[in-house]
Specification:
The protein is an alpha+beta fold. It has 13 helices and 25 strands. The strands form 7 sheets. It has a 5-stranded mixed sheet with strand order 2-1-11-19-18. Strands 21-25-24-22-23 form a 5-stranded mixed sheet.
């Protein structure tokens, strides 16, 4: 029997499984699709996520698929420079989500169980039983990372409050029979609200269209090639010709978040815990960082040495982060509305973002580099321990902690949580920090 079940083989679920396996747990990922998807909803990794993947040795497998390193992010299309961020990776990586997922999945010990859609979830005092693919699967815990339309969330009746969609957009992957010279020759930041084009692999192009026609059509209306053609012609002129619509979906600016990320033995992560307008490239990154925050805490709980409240700190730390992202994306949605009042607000915001301090503050937020938690002093810039332990650099480790802390030489003393955040940086208090985040030391009798 696995220690943990994970519902959903997107990047969030796969990284959660990877983190749990690194810590020595047995994990089974359940995925409804029969084959790995080649469709990529997200197309970029923000700097903090690049750091996280690099620290875990996952970045090397992703880099061959990177299309571009963008030295900026954007706030509703307004460029936000990253070059002065305090990181080794002051850029976004333009890469299709499918390649990120594949790189993580390749490192799992236990293969993903596919064609296993979740249909029932039952909890008791000792664990969780999940019916998926017509079979019952039992584990001590379940991580629900099954997307914005989470079946697990629905089955548990978890409250998912927020705001309903007010605007409608279309995202589509298309081929082009013709296009103006120079258009969409490479990856770049959005330059217009509607008709944005980005080249993908295999001769495909990603476009997002947002106009009056999209507001009129119902969410269940099929997206036709003629609709996309009209939108792209309006944005780029008569020189562009759609060949085929390979995939398309309508979406809106709904913003919702679970009231509680933990429901007894079920913990939610990624889009299953929060949805928002996918503007600014924050959704994939938010989910990846949910996974690394949750993984080591759940592993400590399973292994029986988590201090009181550690697992609940997952909700306490990550819920406010997602709430802030939802606030940001709602604001960006308003700035993109083709309305004179919204245009006036956009002009004011554009002026404010010309102030270096304001622009830097927004860059820290969107990139994830400025993220911090209570009791955390800084991000660390050290490789994560291969076995999911914390890292102590530049100091002597007290007895009883070697099973949970890897020691390294270093000029700067610091204790780094398994998710890469510094919780002690020299002076008194090392043992207090160890107790706060890692529980009680292992006695010599237990080690024997």
């Amino acid at each position: 029997m696995p220690d943990v079940l994970v519902a959903g083989a997107g990047p969030t679920g796969l990284l959660a499984a990877f983190e749990l396996e690194r810590a020595g747990l047995d994990v089974l990922v359940l995925e409804r699709d029969a084959q790995p998807t080649t469709q990529s909803k997200a197309l970029g990794l923000q700097p903090r996520s690049v750091e996280v993947l690099a620290e875990r040795g996952l970045l090397a497998a992703i880099e061959p698929h990177v299309q571009v390193r963008l030295p900026a992010g954007h706030f509703s299309g307004l460029p936000i420079g990253y070059t002065d961020l305090p990181t080794r990776f002051p850029y976004q990586l333009g890469v299709e989500q499918a390649h990120v997922a594949a790189a993580i999945e390749a490192r799992l010990r236990t293969p993903v169980l596919r064609d296993a859609a979740v249909t029932a979830v039952a909890q008791d005092d000792d664990g969780v039983t999940v019916t998926a693919g017509g079979r019952d699967h039992r584990a001590g815990w379940l991580v629900a990372a099954d997307g914005g339309h989470s079946t697990v969330r629905t089955l548990l009746g978890a409250a998912f409050p927020g705001t309903s969609a007010r605007i409608s957009l279309v995202v589509a992957d298309v081929t082009l029979a013709a296009k103006p010279t120079g258009l969409a020759d490479g990856w770049q930041l959005p330059s217009q609200a509607s008709g944005y084009l980005l080249p993908l692999s295999g001769g495909r192009y990603r476009t997002v269209v947002f106009g009056e026609e999209q507001q009129r059509l119902g969410r269940d209306e099929p997206v036709t090639a003629d609709e996309v053609q009209r939108a792209l012609t309006a944005a780029h002129g008569p020189g562009i010709e759609v060949g085929e619509v390979l995939w398309a979906s309508r979406f809106g600016d709904a913003a919702r978040q679970l009231e509680h990320y933990r429901h007894s033995r079920v913990l939610f992560a990624g889009d299953a815990a929060h949805i928002h307008l996918p503007v600014g490239g924050q959704g994939l990154n938010l989910g990846l960082q949910d996974a690394v925050n949750l993984g080591w805490k759940l592993a400590a709980q399973v292994r029986g040495h988590a201090p009181d409240g550690l697992l609940d700190s997952y909700h306490d730390e990550r819920h406010p982060v997602a709430a802030r992202v939802l606030l940001s994306t709602r604001a960006q949605a308003v700035l993109g509305v083709p309305d004179p009042d919204a245009a006036a607000v956009r002009e004011i915001v554009t002026g404010l973002l010309a102030v270096p301090e304001a622009r830097h503050a927004v860059a820290l937020e969107i990139s994830g580099i400025g993220l911090t938690y209570p009791g955390v002093s800084a991000r660390a810039d050290v490789p994560a321990a291969a076995d999911g332990r914390a890292v102590l650099a530049g100091a002597a480790l007290p007895d009883g902690w070697a099973d949970r802390v890897e020691t390294r030489a270093g000029a700067e003393p610091q204790l780094v949580r398994p998710d890469g955040y510094v919780v002690w940086s020299g002076g008194p208090g090392l043992e207090d920090a160890l107790h706060t985040w890692l529980g009680q030391p292992t006695t010599a009798a237990l080690l024997a």
